[in-house]
Write a structure and sequence with these properties.
By secondary structure, the chain is an alpha/beta fold. It has one domain (37-404): 3-Layer(aba) Sandwich (Rossmann fold). It contains 7 helices and 14 strands. The protein has helices at 3-17, 158-165, 186-212, 233-241, 321-330, 361-367, 374-392; strands at residues 60-74, 83-96, 108-115, 121-128, 131-132, 141-147, 170-174, 221-231, 276-282, 287-288, 291-292, 308-313, 336-341, 447-452. Helix 2 (158-165) links the parallel strand 6 (141-147) and strand 7 (170-174).
């Protein structure tokens, strides 16, 4: 038998007997490594994500704290007048962890719930890459307040909290305890309408106070560099906390509670958070029924001076895309940006739907857009939010190239000398290419990005 025949026979014997001869294929008896929650974390972007979506250099730690504000008016309680009681906010804190920690890397499983169509909670789980109780990294990092939407849970924003923490931010995300959104009454809506800006202002001030005292997990936060991020009802809250003065008519939607905090009210200034360096408003609510949230004079969103990034879906029928564009136009005192997902609706900010939330249309609609894949929506937001915060909260001027001077319509971008085919390199941006900097040439599509300076 020739050598060629011997080799062929050996190969056939290996196939016939099931022997694994390919390089890297383990023996059938070799234990397979266990899949850890961190492996499926949505904070970890896929291979077609834009450049700045990638995780940063830090492992991520996770802490759970309860923030308590005494003597708060609750519009959901009390007969003749709102009940005054302690306001308790369970809060997640994601932070940069020390490298090389013995317990970092395996991740965690988040357990949360959101209301179903019948008003009852639907429990779900999400995989995360954070390590509970990990030792914090040395240094001081910008403080981020992350506010969820009506009826949401902070765990559904873990993709953003974890991603930012890996890049050197301390992210504080309270759970606001909204009533079920299926209860469509003015009385039920008064809860989140009233409490969202009040809670955000309190959480920011309390986190800043603890950071200044180097207290616990807040010790790593730099209160002088504060960022506000909010989705939907949380977007309304962070714009108010950034300085947009409430419409006096909001008093009637809050059982009178917001009257003193509205434009001209004795406590209006108390809602504005100190040391805000940047604001991100994702699909922000701006009116409730026929009532605009903010004063329609220049003292509304026109009073905001902190740089602001708006994010919206072009087909958002919950808060209205035109309403978001109007906020972008009227916030003239601040440098501002608007990222638009063409064809997208309102459900652009929560994690991709967990398995437990795919059983009914109601449950899945919390999480999934009708057109866009979630593993595209989230990484694109990671990219732009990272560029924006690094530029304005950390002062990294080089990140301006990812924000300023872009062609407004991504589909109009051109990269004349880009390699042909499935090229996964990132566009270098101007002057070499007008394909958006940091995007792969075939992935800069379906988007608009607009910028306006302060005036």
């Amino acid at each position: 038998m020739t050598m060629k025949k011997v080799v062929l026979a050996g190969a056939l014997l290996a196939v016939a007997t099931g022997t694994a001869i390919a390089a890297g294929v383990p023996h059938p008896g070799t234990p397979r490594p266990a899949i850890q929650p961190a492996d499926d974390a949505q904070a970890r972007p896929p291979v077609d994500a834009p450049e700045l979506a990638r995780l940063g250099a830090y492992p991520v730690g996770l802490a759970r704290v309860e923030l308590v504000q005494p003597a708060q008016a609750d519009p959901l309680q009390g007969a003749d007048r709102p009940l005054v009681t302690a306001r308790r906010l369970p809060t997640l804190v994601w932070y940069p962890a020390a490298r090389g920690g013995a317990r970092t890397g395996t991740g965690t499983t988040y357990h949360a719930a959101m209301s179903g169509a019948d008003g009852r909670d639907v429990p779900f789980t999400l995989a995360g890459l954070a390590t509970p109780g990990a030792r914090a990294a040395a240094g001081r990092f910008p403080l981020v307040i992350l506010a969820h939407g009506y009826g949401n849970a902070p765990e559904a924003l873990a993709w953003l909290g974890e991603n930012l923490a890996s890049k050197g931010y301390v992210v504080v995300a309270p759970a606001f305890g909204d009533p079920p959104i299926s209860i469509r009454t003015a009385a039920a809506r008064s809860g989140p309408i009233t409490r969202r800006p009040l809670d955000i202002a309190f959480v920011a001030a309390e986190a800043q106070r603890r950071a200044a005292r180097r207290d616990g997990v807040f010790a790593a936060a730099d209160a002088s560099r504060t960022v506000l991020i909010g989705y939907s009802m949380g977007g309304y809250g962070v714009l108010t906390a950034a300085g947009a003065l409430l419409n006096p008519q909001m008093g009637s939607l809050s059982r009178g509670i917001l009257a003193d905090y509205a434009a001209g009210g004795a406590r209006a200034a108390s809602l504005k958070v100190a040391n805000v360096k940047a604001v991100v408003a994702i699909a922000p609510a701006s009116r409730f029924g026929e009532t605009p949230a903010w004063s329609t004079s220049g003292a509304g969103v026109g009073a905001i001076t902190a740089p602001t990034l708006f994010v919206a879906g072009e087909h958002d029928h919950a808060v209205g895309y035109d309403a978001v564009r109007d906020l972008f136009a009227r916030e003239r005192r601040a440098p501002r940006y608007l990222l638009t997902f063409k064809g997208a609706g309102h459900s652009i900010a929560l994690a991709g739907a967990p398995a437990e939330m795919r059983g009914t249309f109601w449950d899945m609609d919390w999480f999934e857009d009708a057109v866009w894949r979630k593993d595209r929506l989230l990484p694109i937001q990671m990219h732009f939010i990272t560029a924006f915060l690094d530029r304005f909260a950390k002062g990294e001027t080089a990140k301006a190239a990812y924000l300023d001077g872009l062609v407004s319509d991504a589909d109009a971008g051109n990269w004349p000398n880009a390699p042909i085919g499935r090229y996964d390199g990132f566009s270098p941006g101007a002057p070499v290419a007008t394909v958006w900097k940091g995007f792969q040439p075939s992935r800069a599509t379906g988007l608009r990005f607009e910028a306006e300076p302060a005036s």
